[in-house]
Specification:
This protein is α/β, with parallel strands linked by helices and about 350 residues long. The chain folds into two domains: about 190 residues, 3-Layer(aba) Sandwich (D-Maltodextrin-Binding Protein, domain 2); about 120 residues, 3-Layer(aba) Sandwich (D-Maltodextrin-Binding Protein, domain 2), CATH 3.40.190.170. Helices cover about 45% and strands about 15% of the residues. A five-stranded mixed beta sheet has the order 2-1-3-10-4, sandwiched between helices. It has a four-stranded mixed beta sheet with strand order 8-5-9-11.
Length: about 350
């Protein structure tokens, strides 16, 4: 109840100051509310959001003060889009897959199974794709796009070892997004939607058997505690974005808009990509140490032959994405052709 009360008070306070650029005294800083649903111990909170807060305040010479709220105090991961649009806070971390039924669907092409291999290359690919096909998605939703990034490649955190595809038969597997519901079924698993905030308890209680998540992010949530078998499947890579309330952005002085657009927003995206790029291998090594000390748990890397068995059943989802895009009135075939061309230009071979 205390947490709910804190969230309510903080949310009301943030809403009241939405878009208001104080003008009573020249010395009054602009208050920027940043709602982060990740825990305060998450590597992105520690190594991206907190340093960015300091960077903003330094680069603006105190003209902007960033009020950073962690652990979903202002809103959950699935509420970010509506919260930022509606003014609960000004800046938020957004996962397009959670908004599959909005124009952000276009960005989910980057989450097609076994398409992208890492956060640096993935962020580059998706930025190019969004520049060609996705800019209007943010305009339609009336939000400011601060930048697109790709996570590190997901692993499976399970309560029993997953060494081969047959080990998934009948288990409750977290469906990363709507498109992954069918993939879970194709693997013989039971697709189970699950927010990151709820997964630890779900794994403890057995309402979830396998959590698919970023290795870097899993260190912050500590999924390896209730699920001490970690399978390096290296897919999907989830696409994320940082968004800003449009009314707040529009009221910023011209020089601050320029500073955010050209320096501060790219800096935050670069911080996040760097954390993911460095974090994956470090996270696996740390988990190995933890499992060795506990005498329980394992980091599992399927053989190439076994990995192919995971890849092959996902082929229909590539065609399904095109079909869904066409259904929404988008040029699905052209978008897919451009996506594959961008992959190839960056040295990646599409799996299908």
């Amino acid at each position: 109840m205390l947490r709910a009360a804190i969230r309510t008070v903080a949310g009301l306070a943030a809403a009241l100051i939405l878009g208001v650029v104080p003008t009573a005294r020249a010395a009054d800083p602009i208050q920027m509310e940043f709602g982060n649903w990740l825990p305060s111990t998450h590597p992105q909170a520690v190594n991206s959001f907190e340093p960015w807060k300091k960077l903003v305040e330094e680069k603006t010479q105190g003209r902007v003060k960033v009020n950073l709220y962690h652990a979903g105090v202002l809103g959950t991961s699935r509420a970010t889009l509506n919260d930022v649009k509606g003014g609960v806070y000004h800046v938020g971390l957004m996962v397009p897959a959670y908004y599959y039924d909005t124009p952000l669907f276009k960005l989910t092409i980057g989450e097609l199974p076994f398409a992208i291999t890492g956060p640096v290359i993935g962020s580059k690919i998706m930025s190019e794709f969004v520049a060609k096909h996705g800019k209007d998605a943010f305009d339609q939703l009336n939000i400011k796009n601060m930048g697109i990034f790709a996570s590190d490649a997901y692993a499976m955190y399970s309560t029993a070892p997953i060494r081969k595809i047959e080990d998934l038969k009948g288990v409750k597997l977290r469906a990363v997004g709507k498109a992954w519901v069918q993939i879970a079924k194709d693997w013989g698993a039971v697709p189970t939607p699950m927010q990151p905030e709820e997964a630890y308890t779900a794994l403890e209680r057995g309402t979830l058997n396998v959590m698919q998540y970023s290795p870097t992010g899993a260190m912050g949530w500590k999924y390896y505690e209730p699920a001490s078998y970690v399978t390096r499947l290296d897919s999907p890579i989830v696409i994320g974005g940082l968004i800003m309330n449009k009314a707040f952005y529009d009221k910023l002085p011209a020089d601050l808009k320029k500073l955010f657009d050209e320096e501060l927003n790219p800096a935050l995206v670069n911080m996040m990509v760097s954390v993911y790029e460095k974090g994956a291998n470090q996270s696996f090594e740390k988990m190995k140490e933890i499992f060795k000390a506990k005498g329980k748990g394992e980091v599992i890397t399927p053989s190439p032959e076994e990995r192919v068995k995971f890849i092959k059943p996902t082929e229909p989802e590539w065609a399904a994405w095109v079909k869904e895009a066409n259904k929404r009135g988008y040029p699905g075939e052209a978008m897919m052709a451009d996506f594959k061309a961008i992959l190839k230009k960056n040295g990646l071979a599409p799996p299908f």
